[in-house]
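ok so for the tutorial part 2 we go from a plain amino acid sequence to predicted structure tokens. step 1 is just haveing the sequence, like this:
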Amino acid sequence: MDELDPGDRLYVVQDVCDPGERGRLRAAVRCLRSRGLWPDLVKIAVGFYYTPRIGPGNWWAEDQIREGAAHGRVGALLFLLGNVADGGRRADLASRAACAAVTGRDAGDALRVVKGLAPHLSEHAMAGVFLAACASGDEHTVSWLSRRVGDPPRGAARDTGLLASGLRIAAKQDRTGAIAALLRFGEGGGGEGARLEGAASRLRWIDEEKDDGTTALWIAARYGNEASVRLLVAAGADVNCRRTEDQASAAWVSAHYGHEAVLAALLEAGANPSALSTCGTSALEDAAQRGAAAVVKQLLSAGAAECAEAASAAEEHGYKELATVIRITTSKYCVLDSFGGESAGVFATYAAIALMCLLTAHLLAFLFPE
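step 2 — the prediction. this is what the tokens look like for a chain of 370 residues:
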């Protein structure tokens, strides 16, 4: 205990013992502190009050260890864990304390605590702490843990599943710092052996799917996390990714939930505005039947198809003005069935030529009257 700084010593003495015993401890603190006898004080506090109480089911002691981790009391924390005789229990408490540190009130202490606890953490526990750090978004902790969980032993193949899970978690919570740290690690910024083999491998890692087919980009789009979407798009994530269940694309789901900024970012990156879900509904039709005028305008400007269906859907759901706007707009950009399936670009060209001919005829009639 002599190696602990005074702040950590005071934490051990005052906060570790049961509330009912603190009166006796305070009296001991005043007496022994006045004499400068910290070692004797520690012997009283730890030897008589704390050590015998670290046993199975001692929720109060576990809570104190987690609190010590959350407040960055590394020295006190390691000392207390050292008094746990059972190795398995010590590892379990260390794992809980590390998770408490990365989700604690002071993110600046998280990396210091995790580094101190690392020798007590199993590979499985380290993975859990890594995922908790991705959820909390501490960039420095995620960067350090990425090297611990992402770099395989020499000669072993890289398992990117855990890294992809962390990326999806960070994308859902919009933790851009964690996303940036993970992307840097994938690009080789994590140190020796961190670079993924080739651009194709890197992109497969970014687009690795959950069981339901959702990727980090899809999840960020679903929750309207524009900053995360732009980071992932810039890293080369597939902007046309789809969920397995209903084949809803990232653009489709962002339009459905009204995330206009996210939709704009995806369309700018080349996302297909006309992708259909398994029920045959386009993003434009879905937005039209909900009366989402701003989203409809975005999709029309991006050249979305299924315009006639969208106008009908808007009208059926009582949005007659929106239906009129769609029909007027699509007379310029969309293909009508009566034109035999010609592309919107060809139709627009023909319309422009016809208009020029009409204007020329009027001009000639004005200049050369009969």
